[in-house]
Amino acid sequence: MQVIKRDGRLDDFNSERIVKAISLAMGQTQGGIDVNLANAIAESIEKTFGSKKQVTVYEIQDLVEKKLMASARKDAA
Questions:
Q1: DSSP 74
Q2: In which band, very low, low, confident or very high, does the pLDDT at 34 lie, cut at 50, 70 and 90?
Q3: Measured distance CA(68)–CA(53) in Å, rounded
Q4: Which of 33, 49, 54, 76 is deepest in the core (most CB within 10 A)?
């Protein structure tokens, strides 16, 4: 799967980038970092978009936010 970046470039999907972004957001909260939740969200996103050939960074970002809002870690969204 390819990710369409903000500047229009294409890059290979990398779930570790999602984990890193979620971890950075969680690190700014009092709840701290929950790596298990970050990994679970990244895996879920990969499964959700797995059949698509291309996905935008905005689509990924929106889904990450929705998944965080549906979790106990709304503070990280």
A1: G
A2: very high
A3: 25
A4: 76
